[in-house]
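Entry:
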Amino acid sequence: MEEKKIGNNPAEEDSVKEFILNIRELYQYLLSKWVIVSVTVVVGAILGFIYAKYNKPLYTATTVFVLEEGGSGGGLGQYAGIASMVGIDIGGSGGGLFAGDNIIELYKSRSMIQKALLSESTYENKKELLINRYIGFNNLQESWKKDPRTQNVQFAVNMKPNLVQDSLIGEIVKSIRINYLNVVKPDKKSSIIKVEVRCKDEAFAKGFSDEIVSTVSKFYIETKTKRSIYNIANLQHQTDSVRSVMNGAIYSAASVIDATPNLNPTRLLLRSAPVQKSQFSSESNKAILTELIKNLEIAKVSLRQETPLIQLIDEPVLPLEKSHIGKIKGAVFGAFLFGVLIAILLIVRKKIRSSLT
């Protein structure tokens, strides 16, 4: 019996040969245009060299920190019920505001970025608003002068932005969010957060990184502990009030006794009734004061537990890490890019001409 030959499909062999012939033809065609290709490659190398020479490096300010959430569970639960009986909330978790990746979105929010931009940072022993530094190295004043509404715009410390300033701040915030700021959690299961600010101005990158981390951390802690701080203030006020009433009752009883030193035994009612009334008021307020003091101390413990810990692992230190395309690398990349582009253009032109003939 004759063995069947496998893989000898004439149609497939023809298509492979045709493909190889087309590649060879295109190669020969590009070789025939070697002058155009060479000139284009040289131009690309020169442009790549010039770009690498005059292009400013990008500086990266990196801050890495660990976020440890606070919580008021555990042993405080038994006391929370006692406090709630007298209408007092001794505190609790700040809720899910910062759960998961919400804190990353907080870094990208307009309010946080705007607060950081309107903060001062020190450059060469001189304080300057971050937003003014941003405007300076981006030459925004030149473009703003073309519009009468923006030509005289200035930003100062503790200013309240007007409509025009607010609009300009919005554009700057959008640019920073997209082009400058990057906030990530390298590991979704961990509490480590990395904040990167990339910018052509080294001083701005360092200053803005410090301010945005400080602004968000401060807002985070204030929000998480706001309710507990309010409860402590309320408990302290109630404690002081009850203590004042109790002291008043004690002094009132003593005053009655002092006012009647030689009282007639047949008129003891004049002394005993006011004294007993004051003593009863004093004992009642003493019991209330004891509970209030206990709840106040519990609330203070709750506040300490709820206060989150933000521990810096790495923070930006001058000089910052910079990324820059070398001159040789720029020339090679430019030559390669222009070479590929001219080859594609020549091939497309040849195909168009072939189809028209």
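Confidence is low (pLDDT under 50) at residues 1-6, 72-88, 90-96, 266-271.
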